[in-house]
Every structure is written in C-alpha cells, then in structure tokens.
Amino acid sequence: MLDKAIKQAVDQVNGEAPWSLVEAFATMPRWKPEDVEASAHDIARRLKEVGVPVELLEANLYLSIPYEASVEAGGETLAAKPPAYSVSCPEGLTGVLAHVPGNLSATVSSFYDKNRDEAAAAENRIRGKIVLTDGFASPNKVLEFQEKGAIGVIAVNPGVDRHWGICSSIWGTPDLDGLPRKPTIPVAVVNNPDGQKLIALAKDGGSATIRTRLEEGWFKSLVPVVNVTGAVEPEKFVLLAGHYDSWDVGVGDNATGDAALLEIARVLWANRANLRRSVRIAWWPGHSTGRYAGSAWFADAFALDLDENCVAQVNCDSPGCRWADVYENVACMSEATDLCTSVIREVADLPFEGERPLRAGDYSFNNIGLSSFFMLSSTMTVEKRKEMNYYTVGGCGGNIAWHTENDLMEIADRDILIRDIKVYLAAVMAVANAAVLPFDWRATTREFAATLEKYRKAAGDDAVLLDQVSAALAELTATLDTFYAGIADGSVQEDRANAVIQDLARILVPLNYTRGPRFTHDPALPVPGLPALSVAGELAAHGPETVGFARTQLMRGANRTAAAMRQASRLAR
C-alpha cells in the first residue's frame, strides 16, 4: 500500500513545528470572533515560516457566540453554560421544572442519540415547563422538547464539569428551509452535582430561573487553505481539513489537529514533486459556534469544483491525545475500510476498527457525494476509560476534558501526535498517489445488503415493497465484481476506472448518508444506513391511522434507492 515516496515523506515528520503550535494555542482561547481571527493569522504565519504558501479565504458565517449562563433555584445561583444557538435570555426565564430521565451513551457511535425516557417526554408532561434532561444538550433532544411545548431546557452533564456545545440541528449557516429549526427557547448546562439538586427540586414541583447571554449574527471568518499541486493529475485533489476554532483553548479539540495539518502541509509541500494528485488542506472556523459553518461554507462556495475534482475528504479532529493507544470507533465509509486498515497497520502497527461516520464532525460533503474517512482518530481503550471512570465524550481521545476549560496541555501527547500525523499523512498520500483510487464499492454493497436485510426483517409482510431494491442491489453487486475484476486484469484502463470510482461516490454516498438533495446540508441528526428505507424499521409502531402513509413513504424510498443502484450499475458497466 505505501510506496517509496510515501515512506520517505512519513520519515520526514517531526514534532518541532506542530508542538510549537500546540503550546501556543494552549494559551489562546478560540471561540470569540476576534480570537478566532487572530488564530487564523497565527496559522498562516506558521505556514509561511516553514515555507508553505497559504491563502486566507474570507467567509461570512452566521454564528452564535455563548458567553455566560446561570440557573437560580432553591435559594441558590448555580453556575451554568449556554449552548450555542440557544436563545439569549439575560432577563431570565422562570418556570416549573420537569425531569425527563435519560441514559448516557456507552459509545461514541450512539453519542448523538436522544437517550431519554419516552413517557416522561410526553407533551402533556412538559408543555409550559423547563425540562431537565440527563446528559448533553443535543440538538435532537432540544428540538423535540421545544416542539412539545417546553419553555426552556436544562441539561445535566454527567460529571463535575459543564461542557460547552451547540444545540441547533441546523448544519452550517441556515438557509430559508433551515431557519424553522432554529431553537426558540433558552438552554443552560449544569454539572451533575448541581443537576441532582434540580432533579430533587423538580420532584417536589419546584421552579427555576434560567439566565443566558449569547450573541448571534453574521461574522467575517477566515479559512486558511494550502494547495499542494500534484504533478500528474493536478486538477484532482484530496481534501484534508480540521477546525481551528475551539471551546476555550481546546488543546485536544482541536489544537492538536491544527498542528497535524501544519506538519502535513510542510511535508507535502517539500514532497510535492512526488504527488500524483493535488492535496488541499483547510482549517475550518465556525465548527463550534456555527455547527460546522466553515466547512459547510466551503462545500457551498466550491461545490462544483468539489463535485468535479475531489476524490476524497479526510477530517482531522482530536489526534495526539493522552492515552490514545488504539484506533477504535474511527469514522470510515465502507469503501475506504481496506485503505484505512492497511495504512494504520503499516504506519502504527496497530489494528483498525472503523465505524459508520456519524452525522457530525465537519462531514459537510455527504450531499455532494465524497468518499470520506477519519473524523476522530486514535482514542483510549475501553479499559482505560473504565479505569479513569470516564463517561463517553465526542473528542479529545476520550478524555472528559472535551469541550471544557480543562482541555489544556496535559491532554496532548507529543509522541502520540507524531504517530497520528504519520497516519494521516500516509493515508492522504495513499489516495493522492494511487494509480487506481483505493475505494472498493463492493464493501459498500455488503453494507447495503446487511442494512437491507435488517429492514426486510423489520417490515414483515411489507418486505415485498423492498423486492425491487433487492433486485437492484444484486445487479449492482454482480456488476461491481466484474468491474473490479477488469481493473485487476487490466481490461479496464486506469483513467476510466478512476472516473467510475469517483462518480460512484456521487451516487452511493448520498444514497447511504443523506435524506435531502445534493448540494444541500442535512440536519445534524442521526442518519441510518440507506435512510430512504429507514421507515421500514418503524412500520410495526404505526397503527391503522398512519400505517398506510408509512407504507407510501417506504414505496417512494424504495423507488429512490433502486433507481440510484441501477444508475450505479449502468455507470460501472
């Protein structure tokens, strides 16, 4: 998998420039607009110092900047944090408390699920009240509580810390269709000891007052971009990116990622003559305060170029963190599994455990249809998390300093960062230099088959509605077997193979990861496999009044899915 040029480049990685950036960012908070802009200029300065040219693009992003919050109850004023995109309410909102119990996610893969008690969340129990919810202020929970008439939400975080976050399901800057999903209620986050006081108060019918202060509006945001031009196919490129804004100083999320991108840019620029395709490296703003607003802006502003020329998207978030000894639960689309497995084995001498990418982490390119891999990288073992009594978080290698003021230098590990940089560099170069793009769509059809079988079982007698999908999938599987056999025996030329592999992504990635049309952005809510068919798993829950509508939805979803698979078959033929 790794050719001589890649191995030489990997050997050139060192910790001098990246570690210097980590140390500097550990003293630079990066969520207020003026601080974010200063850090963009710092990234640009460091790139120029190591001889890498950089362009600072200017984006106009709609952001929500949280400042402070408190909860008054039971004669106490409790410290709190306001999630971005919640409503600013400095004058205070008072209401009766209603507790909706919930369970914490055991793994990152379920981190964005709602995890709350259905009965306790019933509309007649929470309308006109302030909801207390266990866990994090996730957008799907806040949206549901708002729709059921809650006037405010207080999230009770699992430990002694209060975690920053964002409670909007809107992906990036809202468009007119997305605006109705903007939260219209105040939300505050408290730690677990204070949350337990509030839960006890709620049991006695007590009230609380939420105060929050946020600033919402349009902000100029800078996007540093490095273009390393390939020597053979310069118009084709791999997009490697990560966010540089963070909560507080955010060392493990994501100063270490910013440092990784800096070092990779340095090494790739020095080895640009050995690149077949180009590599475009970008640092995103608006990740924290705009729900991936920077990457969404880039996807919008350069949509046609991405559609025509981008062969893969690679996300770099939270590498190089303390105790991150394994590559487990690493985001990877099925077609890239063999690539990721090989690279991590060869570079880090570790096994790889990939998982379906969540609707999170600057994956702003699913609707365009880009094959993608990585999001979070290495992490600590399950055993280490148990030893430390850590609950699940969405970054920092599993360290619970994630999204808190405790994400400081102690969260970073220089040796682990260098190892992770080498993994990212090798993976990006493996795509950029491959004679035939290293994406195997047969792995994706195997995922489709498992997903379809699950839906067929859930649909029961209505599984007949999925017969056309089964037939189309069988045809696509056979066609891809022939296509890849042709690549292996040389009967399919490399340039034609690459065109087909890229174009298959434009069909099959949206089919597997999106509900909306191409060149839009689906909400930041969980997306199941083959989402147009997901209603099949819900048919049993529908009574006589709605089951016919659900069957109609399934029929339409089956039409979309089968047609896309047939289109992919024609392309591969």
Automatic annotation (TrEMBL):
This is Carboxypeptidase Q. SUPFAM superfamilies: Zn-dependent exopeptidases. Keywords: Carboxypeptidase, Endoplasmic reticulum, Glycoprotein, Golgi apparatus, Hydrolase, Lysosome, Metal-binding, Metalloprotease, Protease, Secreted, Signal, Zinc, Zymogen. The keyword Metal-binding applies. Its main location: endoplasmic reticulum. One of its GO terms (molecular function) is carboxypeptidase activity. One of its GO terms (biological process) is proteolysis. It comes from Paradevosia tibetensis. Homodimer. The monomeric form is inactive while the homodimer is active. It comes from the Bacteria. It is found in: Endoplasmic reticulum; Golgi apparatus; Lysosome; Secreted.
